[in-house]
Amino acid sequence: MVKKRSTLTRDILAAVAATGSLMVVVLTAPSLPRTLGQLLNKYQRNSLAPSRIKQRLRDLQRQHLVDISEQGNRTKIRLTKAGRVRVLEYEADDMVIPKQTPWDGQWRYVIFDIPEKNKLARNVFREKLRMLGFVKIQQSVWRHKYPCSPEIEFLTHLYQITRYVSVLQGHSLGQ
């Protein structure tokens, strides 16, 4: 199965991030597969010609997600700040809150008061809470059955809303 373009972009950025945000590769046909190893194993051989990867890297450079510098037959690829943010966004897309069995009977409440000037971050945060399985109690009060502090901390840091969000734990009213 051939992967979508966005998946290849995501995998290239993840490969660069996994190498400490700086990757040195030799962009020639024989050495490229060894350099990108596991990344290439995800794709059919004919779908990932070196020219295709080079084109995708140029696209990423035009989008200011990577910086590319040439030194002889070596190419240095470095994530930009925007590239690092994109990698974090991809990690947020893959995030799940693991179920705890048996349930400890405690609810985790996420309460926030994000100002209007951060409306986009607030709306994205709400949608992410919904995707993670949170239940809306009020517009800015959500609850989940399972421990979720690390995930919420990651999201609030990513969206730069940490100071507006609190996580509380307790029993539901009436228990």
UniProtKB/TrEMBL annotation:
The keyword Transmembrane applies. Keywords: Membrane, Transmembrane, Transmembrane helix. The keyword Chaperone does not apply. One of its GO terms (biological process) is DNA-templated transcription. The chain crosses the membrane at residues 12-32. Residues 101-173 form the Transcriptional repressor PaaX-like central Cas2-like domain. Pfam families: PaaX_M. This is Transcriptional repressor PaaX-like central Cas2-like domain-containing protein.
